[in-house]
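On clarity, I found the account of how folds are encoded harder to follow than it need be. For illustration, here is how one protein appears when written out as sequence plus structure tokens.
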Amino acid sequence: MANLKNASIREMVIDKCLSDRKRKYSTKDIMEACNRALEFEGYGPVTSLNTIRGDMQAIENRWHAYGGEIVEERCGRNKYYYYKKEGFSIYHAGLTEEELSKLNETIQVLSRFKGLPQFEWLEELSTRFKSSFMATPNCESIISFEDNRFAEGKQYISLLFEAITQKQVLEISYQPFEQETPAEQEIHPYYLKEYNNRWFLFGLDSGLMKLSTLALDRIKEVRKSAGVYIENTKWNFGEYFEDVIGVTVKEEKKAEPIKLWVDGEQYNYIKTKPLHGSQRVIERREDNSRVIQIEVQENYELYQKLLSFGEKVVVLEPERIRKKLQERIWIMGERYDRFRSTAPIADNFAIRNHSVRNHSYFLLMSNTQIISAKAKKIVDNMLDSIQRLGISTEPNRMLVAYLYSRREDADKDVMESVKHYTHLFAETVFPSNADLSTLEAEYRTVIQYCLSKSVIDKYNPHHLLILPNEAIDLMLKLAHADETSSVLITATEQPNLMTGMSHLNCDVQLVYSNMWAFMQILADSLDSSDNLIINHAYRTTECMMQQNRYDYIFAFYPLFGVKDEAKILRSICEYTEYILSEKGELYCFLPAAVMNLMSNKSFRESLIAQKTGITIIQLPPLFPSVTNVQMVLLKVSKRDPHEIMLVDTEFSNRSKNTSMYSCAKRIVSAIASKDNKQVWTGRAEELDSNLSLKPSRYLIDKIVEPKKGEKLVTLSEIITLCTKQLPSSTALKETVTVNLKDLSTNYLNCSLNYPSLLSENQKPSFSVMEGDCYLFSCFGTSLRVGQLVNSYGKAYFVHREIIPFKLKESAINLVSEEFLLKALLEESTAMQIEALSDATLIRRLCQKDFLALQISLPSLKQQEQIIKDDIHQNMSDSEKRLNDMFRTYKKEISSRKHRMGQGFSAFSANWEILCAMMEIKEGHLNREDVINPDNGMTVGDVMGIMKRQVNLIAQQLDHLSDIEYDFGEAEELEPGSFIHHFIETHRDTRFSFEEQYDPKQYKEIPIDCWAKLKFAPKAMETVFENIVSNAVSHGFTDPERKDYRIRFEESFIDIDCYEIRISNNGNPIPADINPDDIFLYGFSAASAGENHSGIGCADTRSILERYHATVSILSTPDKEFTVTYIITFHQNMLDGE
């Protein structure tokens, strides 16, 4: 586009020179005139006279017949040029025949809009064109477009188009299909879109304050409103529809990968007209069919599009969408059968909500096959039963071993290796002969399903880390291996890695030899099983050196808690040196820390010493359900030059939970283009002293981009670090402590007055300092700053993760102290720290890297104004809080009444239980009488609970009208102990409690940083009671169910981020309710007519916010525990600071 613009400017200048008869122009004069115009427009100069001569020749060729002949006049050695016809200019000439032809074609294309309001001018334009230019009209149309002339609502396009351009609020009478009468809506119109021959209006609904989508054929009337138009500042409609097929967008939903099988013939059409921009082929099968993937939101138009292809397209994943389509297809078949008979299709035809268990859909014969719905349901029921009974943590292996043992061609060695699983299944699971016959009939697909990533992730996620298919796909895209390549797979058990590479000639070596049997069973189930050679035992490097070298080696070592980490890393170097062919490539997935930590420097030294090409690709967490540890893909190539390439396309998206699919696309594109913002290339001597191969460390200079007039500086230019000293033991007795929690995330409120700090005994994690200074810490999830004052040279303890510093005198004219602290809290600083940090789970920064951080400095005057604006904003917020006090008090009273209501409700339920028990016992109750045999609750237990409930209601009555409810002083709470105490004191006959605790998560967390929460016990108890009450009110509504449960889980997310999850297995949240709305004051998820105030969740959030904690709801209707409250604690952590 820039080149076209450049040529257009040159043409305009040359025409002006040739038209000028007041002076003469040589080609050099014309070139200088062109360059002045190009420079003014921001383009580079013309450097060759031949370019000018070529432009002049093009003008003469095109316009010669219209008077554009160019004359060359000699004057001495010079040549001058001008138009032969005086007064001629190409901008005054008529249209050429080519331009007339193009204009005629354009009008024919625009004719598709004839008849639409706002396009009446097309008829007049067509007539004037034919008369003015004597264009001969065609007798017949030569182009047409799909158009539904009978569609309703087109008459509104003109009015809506004008309202959008004029920014006019509209009152619209709108009647959806499911409503009998129209409803009035006030709409701020933003955008018109056509889809599938229907027009849609997108605008802000004044009542809901949400974006609404209105189909024009459902609009009954449009009127102008006197309301004030609200500008669109939120939605970019150029990107709004990127994640959907059609027009239905659910902003709270994310696009998800959808895998589709496409018939070979149908693929030719889908290839030329993709379903969506994200469409890509992930597998080509022997029958010429394809498996493709799109990444879109689930919506109505998606289902309509997929159904339109009939049997030519099949959904493979996700299972949820696949099942919905299967059910609709089954219902469609039922209706066709019924319509063929004499029975009426309407009143006498009741569609039954059948499952598809009696039908086997789309069994595709290819490398990996699809299990039928019937067999899948049998397998799922068996695996669920085994897991529920607690027989084994690997139910899928039990079933695989048992089915394999029943085959006549079963290998003896494999049988011996899996006999434990076979015997365990035979002794504990007793499937029917019919079920076994079904599974054996689909043996191959059943085996592949049981050993698939989705099943392993569901039934034993913590025992085996399975690489995502997208990661394997990325590796194969980079490798270009084919059937002629010799391949070695050396990894932990990776069934999908084997499946994805079964078309290659692979030698498979498992890191743990006891895994080989199941991989052999999987290999036998694949069409290409002859290509996969599974080794029974681990072979040493020396053993493999005696065999042929490999063109490609694909490896995966999780290295999470592995004792022989150094040995495994050493084997990578040995494989490269001794086993990889002369032009071979090794690909290996490793934890990102291996490329950065000092403890792994010897591995990096050995890797670099081999003088091969090294590529490190940063990946998002590959196993988010197990660990958030970052991963990298290491590529070692003997065919590349001795170059190091470091790739990180997700640096700015690290906190956005980027999908591996979208990440892989960006990686391939970045490597191809060598984008210097995402790709660093260099040699070993350019690495830092630690030989770090962390990509972001070398891309840091692309993070901070100063605005015009600002100066980019490193901290080493403007600050000095304070020296840590060791005063005498006498001084230490009077020393106060500066903790992480003493620092602030608000630079305007970070002053630390020395006399007000607490005195503590010295700890191993603290250093000793003297004198006033500034403080900074990035430890954990947030950046914090502080300014220590009034120390008068006295000593004090400082947490070792705090960096003390002072501003240089020479920097006073560059930066103010307040602005420096503000800059240290900016997102750009956090991104630089992320790039430089050595740690992977807990963010840390050494002092050397701290001094390397960059900040952008405006002028001192601008800095001062920025600080003033921030102070004013803080003051405005305070005033706003004062104005809201009365409304807050009203809500507080309602919340207290709601808490009392919960107590009365629970008391009433227990009273009814005692009354029922009294009838059973004929009026005589003893405290030892057991009410619930499942949990052993007695009459005495229930009476104790009722007494506690009465006391609690009495306390609430005493404080009903207090201006601010007093939960008491905040205390140090150990979460596990508090949860256990809560369960013991809140036992209930209607449900049971359970606790879940994983001791492994504490291994990375120092003992002095284990979770202790600064929280009022009454407040925490109220939060738990609200959540339990909501579960009882909304989830535990079936009186016949006796298995209702509430589960408490606690876990670290980061060093200063801690979660408590409270789940229940009751009714799921209705599909039409946004979980976030449940926390709105007055919102209730109860059905119409039920008496629920909608205050409990709002009260829960309000209480938690007092203590700097947050709460959210996770809806998982497809899982056993359907609703989970996630409580996250941040600033109130007492992490040993």
